[in-house]
Specification:
With 299 residues, this protein is mainly α. 54% of the residues lie in helices and 4% in strands. The protein has twelve helices and three strands, in the order αααααααβββααααα. The chain has a three-stranded antiparallel β-sheet. Strand 1 and strand 2 form a beta hairpin.
Length: 299
């Protein structure tokens, strides 16, 4: 796919024509390699000359999902733009795919929030006649019902869904454990998925404990969750820029707007403090469950 060839040519250009230091050259190359890795993860076997604006937009949305800071995202985009300006300068490409790509705003910006009506529309837009549709409904219900991070969703184990008490056992950042309430609707769709879809799958060795699986019987990737949500929004004609984190942010926003205690929401999200000086407060599980019942729109 000629990635190595064009990267080497770009390195020579940066060294000989622009007289950059080895550290600066390495930084540029690492930015391009990240784009290449994203394509490999997405099973897109294309050369750098075949990259389009759509590929780049998807890549930027992907690294945003990895919780990179806006500054890191802007720096990576800068390296990729320099690479394509070089290809254009050398006459290797006729059009620069990065030309209309804008970097992230470096100010602090809250992610888009979905209204409850929009959440319901997204759920009803899922094709429930397919195995993937049943799985996707269970996944998105879980994301919204419990405010999970995408990494927590894909790592969720069968044994950590406690149907009898309505809780999930979650291992968050730093492998910190917490119990999170989950609504009845989400549990209902998880049970349907497990009993009617997952139980009939040929599951690959090493993936037996993961709750949500792809059609090959292996654990889902972060990218796949992101693509599922993007495609669903596109089907619905939703103009908002949504991602798995949108469901987490909507979960918290809807609870707080409904009158839920901020400390309870903070604990369910798995944050250690509300501010940098406030100590993490453990709350009674019955109280957390009561907050979900009283204030979550889907309970």
């Amino acid at each position: 796919m000629n990635w190595d060839f064009y990267i080497r040519q770009f390195q020579n250009y940066l060294k000989l024509e622009r007289s950059l230091s080895e550290n600066s050259i390495d930084a540029y190359v690492h930015d391009i390699v990240k784009l290449r890795q994203f394509l490999e993860i997405s099973n897109l076997k294309i050369s750098p000359l075949e990259i389009t604006e759509i590929h780049l937009q998807n890549f930027l949305e992907y690294i945003n999902e990895l919780s990179m800071t806006a500054y890191s995202q802007a720096r990576i985009l800068s390296g990729i733009k320099a690479f394509y300006k070089y290809l254009l300068f050398e006459g290797i490409i006729e059009n620069d795919p990065t030309l209309l790509i804008e970097g992230p705003k470096l100010g602090r910006k809250l992610p888009d929030t979905l209204s409850y009506i929009e959440i319901e529309k997204l759920f009803t837009a899922i094709d429930m006649s397919t195995d993937e549709g049943m799985r996707n409904r269970a996944m998105l219900e879980t994301l919204y019902s419990s405010g999970l991070r995408v990494s927590e969703l894909i790592e969720l184990k069968l044994a950590n869904v406690y149907y009898d008490i309505g809780f999930l056992r979650i291992f968050g950042k730093g492998n910190k454990e917490r119990l999170v309430p989950i609504g009845r609707e989400a549990l209902k769709f998880i049970r349907i998925y497990v009993e009617e879809i997952r139980s009939h799958k040929d599951i690959k060795k090493g993936n037996e404990n993961y709750l949500f699986l792809n059609r090959r019987g292996t654990r889902l990737s972060r990218v796949m969750i992101f693509i599922i949500i993007k495609n669903l929004a596109k089907t619905l004609g939703l103009k908002k820029n949504i991602s798995p984190h949108t469901f987490r942010h909507s979960f918290a926003t809807h609870l707080i707007e409904g009158g839920a205690d901020l400390r309870a929401v903070q604990e369910m999200l798995g944050h250690e403090s509300i501010t940098t000086t406030e100590i993490y407060t453990h709350l009674d599980r019955d109280y957390l469950k009561q907050v979900i019942r009283e204030f979550h729109p889907r309970s």
